[in-house]
Design goal:
Length: 305
């Protein structure tokens, strides 16, 4: 299969330097192998969507010189929603409805390393006729699920003990990220997932779902997070500034992204047209210089509007 990577932003705000770094890494990884690179808009959660964010993200990607293959997929589209429903049906033997109230969950869950661990309350509870709010959970196995990350190395979790039975369809009727991402990656033929390290601990859950659904597991590379000088992850929540779109800033920020990704871009690239930056970086891309640590970007070096 042709190497295929993807960039899957949630349209909760404009792209910032942290998202640029992830987009650059996934793009270069795919293109350096003459592979395909797809864009998927993860608009599963309407209350979190910001008006105009999708258009702004796509416009910014274009201005920064990214060229995606095929059509952009939207998780909210009827086709995708139908695919998630079909996967849910396939998962029925391994899942169960959960009637627990938020209060019950708060009072009964144990806090683990990765957040609240579900207490299995509904695992063997008889079904209630016409329940009001029903989430669907996956029964997690008493097994260790592991994988080899291209940057973080071997990574494993005891899924039942450390994560617990997790939600694949939410009580409010929305699809859970874990299910949608697995179904989309499989349907889009993704062979490599290059994304932010904040999602590293989600991967064993996704690999487990892939095994239940009979999907192949892609290669994974989690990119160290970009922190600001206060040690905070750059994110929409911390009001990371939107990427500027003038020609000088674009070249400057692409250069800084390559430096952040330890690609050792030569000084001459600072003054070359954008196309030359891309040509150089596709030719020289390597994961080798990336280490599993969070890195601080001196945002003074990053051109913001
Ligand atoms: N939509 C997620 C985000 O914007 C990325 C999900 C993924 O790459 O698996 O953080």
């Amino acid at each position: 299969m042709l190497p295929t990577g993807r960039f899957a932003p949630s349209p909760t705000g404009p792209l910032h330097f942290g998202s640029l770094v992830t987009a650059v890494a996934s793009y270069l990884s795919a293109r350096s192998k003459y592979g395909r690179w797809l864009v998927r808009i993860e608009d599963l959660d309407p209350p979190r969507i910001q008006a105009g964010a999708t258009e702004s993200i796509l416009h910014t990607l274009k201005q920064y010189g990214f060229e995606w293959d095929g059509e952009i997929i939207f998780q909210s589209s009827p086709t995708r929603q139908a695919a998630y429903t079909e996967a849910l049906m396939q998962l029925q033997p391994y899942s169960y409805p959960c009637y627990c109230s938020r209060k019950h969950l708060q009072q009964n869950a144990q806090q683990g390393r990765f957040g609240a661990i579900y207490a299995d309350t509904c695992r063997s509870r008889p079904q209630i006729p016409n329940p009001q709010a029903t989430a669907i959970r996956i029964k997690t196995p008493d097994e260790t699920i592991g994988f080899h990350d291209l940057i973080y190395g071997d990574y494993a979790q005891q899924l039942h003990a450390e994560i617990g039975d997790f939600v694949i369809k939410r009580a409010d009727g929305l699809w859970a990220y874990q299910l949608a991402v697995v179904v989309d990656d499989a349907d889009q033929g993704i062979t490599e997932v290059v994304r932010g390290a904040d999602l590293l601990d989600n991967t064993p859950r996704q690999i487990y779902l892939q095994s239940l659904l009979g999907y192949a597991t892609p290669h994974y590379a989690h990119i160290p997070l970009v922190l600001d000088t206060q040690g905070q992850k750059l994110s929409k929540q911390t009001y990371a500034p939107a990427l500027p779109l003038d020609e000088h800033s674009i070249r400057h920020n692409l250069y800084q992204a390559l430096k952040f990704l330890n690609q050792n871009p030569p000084d001459e690239l600072r003054t070359t047209p954008m196309k030359a930056i891309w040509d150089w970086s596709i030719q020289h891309w390597s994961f080798n210089g990336l280490r599993p640590q969070q890195m601080t970007a001196d945002l003074d070096l990053v051109q913001t509007p």
